[in-house]
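User: Hey, quick favor. My workstation is busy. Could you predict this chain's structure for me?
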Amino acid sequence: MNANPPTNPSRLPDFLRKVLWEYDFDSLSWEKDRDLVIARVLRCGEWPMIRWLREQAGDDFLRDWIEQREGAGLGNRQLRFWQLVIGVRKELVDQWIRNPQRSVWETRTDR
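Assistant: No problem, here it is.
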């Protein structure tokens, strides 16, 4: 990854509890649980969570994070959203969305 977000070992903001409900929230920190926090906020974060994440990590870091993981864990709509908001490259998003293995998860009816 090109950018390194600031490491902040302090507690995460309380408004993130909602997307990290199944974890011992008080034991989580940005420093040691950064990937978990990023994944959850990118996937299902509300606007205040997204703003906090973008301030904490920066758009360059988040874009690199998504691209390194080839959009894993993000739905097609989420990928298009992040393509527009932080500039994930369109050709990569198009490629990930066309991937037949990915489409199996996108077309599930049990979600």
